[in-house]
Amino acid sequence: MRSLPLALTARLLPVVVLASAGWALSSGPFAASPAAENKSASGPGKSSPSAPSTSAATKTYAGSPVPCESVAKKTVTSLVPGAKTAGKEIPSTDESLRRTCSWSALKGFEYHWLDVSYEIKKSDEAAATAYKQRMTEKSGGGVVPGLGDTAYSVVNVTTQDKQQTREGVVIARASNALVIVTYNGSDFETKKAPSTDEINKGAIKAAKEAVAALETAQKS
User: Fold this and answer.
1) Which pLDDT score is estimated for 218?
2) Scanning 29, 94, 157, 166, which has the fewest C-beta atoms within 10 Å of its C-beta?
3) Is the per-residue pLDDT at 119 higher than 50?
4) What pLDDT shows up at residue 113?
5) Prediction pTM value
């Protein structure tokens, strides 16, 4: 097996996985896919038809669901072949406000990584502000209709040591909660990355399940 790029090899080490995932991440059948990286499915910079609440007193969610139970096992198996379906929760200083679960695996020459994060804000207004900030940080994507109160996805490809990695990020707001999904993949044999469509659809599928888990937990 040929040697892996140093940056991606490091991500396979458990200790580095926890350090690198952290809160830097806090980055067809499921929804329309972007035509290309940094290209909006509905037009760049457009917001969801649903207008965020402006009432700072509105707060639907008091806490996050268990993030490692937010995505179905069959979805994990499909998106991250070879990964343990139980996932790995990333330590948080305040689990009532922020929780993340991570799945990653190298199967053959193919590597995939999936993170699902929840952030619970003090109000709908605070969540709407944070959502806009994250859209600015991950500019160039497009609206994902029918997901939470408003949602946005973006896909980018990076190349290091001639190795491509394609990453998709979905940011969804549901009342005072943010759901952030990061999904990426690489093929170390071909040095190519999965298609934009594959990564975008995978990230959106995980995001839909994560938002549904948030809503279910609030009702229970």
Assistant:
1) 78
2) 29
3) yes
4) 98
5) 0.75
